[in-house]
Amino acid sequence: MFLTKFFPLVTKTLVRHYVRTLLTVSGAAVGLFVFTFLGSIQAGLDSLFHQKQSEQTLVVFQAHKFCPATSRLPQDYDARIREVEGVRDVMPIQVFTNNCRASLDVVVFYGVPPEKLSDFRTFETVAGNLAEFDQHQDAALVGRAVASRRGIEPGTKFSMGDHTVSVVGVFASDNPSEENYIYAHLDFLQRKRGDHSVGTVTQHEVLLTEGADPEKVSRAIDRELRSGPVATETRPKAAFQAKSLGDLTQILSLTRYLGYACVGLALMLVSTTTVMATQDRIKEHAVMQTLGYSPMAVFSLVLLESGLQAILGGMIGVAAAMTLLLLTDLAVGVEAATIAFTPSVELALTGLAVALGVGVVAGAPSAVKAARTEIVPALREP
């Protein structure tokens, strides 16, 4: 009822001072754009490290190695790992990446035995035919994110370094990071030109039986392989990815404070604008009270004006950030581990709620001041 009655009045006020309104809305939009964009990074981090599957999955890697390109494990370690108590299944993986350093366009090939893929990964084919992956040695399944960034479609060839694969399908996954990987045949990647690595793999991925203790099984695997030609280091998958990302994770974690700073700047901008607008209209508020407007009505009008500017800016900023994230499928990767920038409905609603909160908090002091305006002194203002 209140909005229906006073919304036209607030709208006219904002349009009358359109330059000030435009600047305020633009500032709020920029602040909420950055807040939403950085929030997608935090959502990607949370998604990467809190996957349920990661809790019961281990990664066996060569000890004291960092980039996957430098890790070499015997492929026949899988038989010895399978004998360890608590291990349900093992998948040898050959990893090939275009960049071990931090990059916004990292491409990661995972060479796996095709018969193992469905047991270790759960995803949905959105284009192409998953069945063809088993039939051709050079076949590849491409994650939706990397397919979007690189313009890859089923039926086309994709090359990186000495590898050229035939894309037979594009897949989507509940884990956004998975959509930045390309799955190929293990034998195919092992026969890379100039680097014959048949019989060796980058790592072994281990599925645990229900109720098995990941830490206990990790120690048991390393003990079992201690007598082998290559020492190993076994970690839960989430811990392995956290170590691979290393300092990048800490740096990205700090972005949440940058997001808070942007919200603070938007709050200061809207608050300053509202204070200026209220100061300019002291006499107008006094006249409104002489015409029968209650102090509560004046308070609500000022608060509505502030909130409307903030929410309008928030809608523009959040919409722009979500559009950019959905169109670009950005991800940052290092050492073959990726963090997908993850937009979501929850993130958008959080951004809009923050924008509304900014409007209310920024406008409250000025609204209180306007509601307490003394009529006679205000009418004497020049």
Number of domain modules: 2
Main sheet makeup: 10 strands, mixed
Rg over CA atoms, rounded to whole Å, is: 29 Å
Taking pLDDT < 50 over at least 5 consecutive residues as the criterion, the unreliable ranges are none
Count of helical regions: 15
Number of strands: 14
State the separation between the terminal residues, measured CA to CA: 35 Å
Structural class: alpha+beta
Q: Oligomer, anyone?
A: single chain
What is the string of helix and strand elements?
HHHEEHEEHEEHEEEHEEHEHHHHHEEHH
Helix residue percentage: 40-55%
User: What overall geometry do the principal axes of the alpha carbons give?
Assistant: elongated
Task: Report the mean per-residue pLDDT as an integer.
Answer: 83
β-strand percent reads: 15-25%
Provide a compact summary of the structure.
The protein has 382 residues and is of the alpha+beta class.
Task: Give an overview of the whole structure.
The chain has helices at residues 2-16, 18-49, 52-55, 77-82, 114-120, 144-150, 186-190, 214-224, 237-245, 247-253, 255-280, 282-290, 295-328, 345-371, 375-379; strands at residues 57-62, 73-74, 87-97, 108-112, 123-128, 139-143, 157-160, 163-173, 181-185, 200-201, 203-208, 232-236, 331-334, 337-340. It contains 15 helices and 14 strands. It has 2 domains: 2-48 and 250-379, no CATH class; 65-230, no CATH class. α11 (255-280) runs parallel beside α14 (345-371). The chain is elongated, with a radius of gyration of 29 Å. Strands 1, 3, 4, 5, 6, 7, 8, 9, 11 and 12 form a 10-stranded mixed sheet that branches. The chain has a two-stranded antiparallel sheet with strand order 2-10. Strands 13-14 form a two-stranded antiparallel ribbon. With 382 residues, it is α+β, with helices and mostly antiparallel strands.
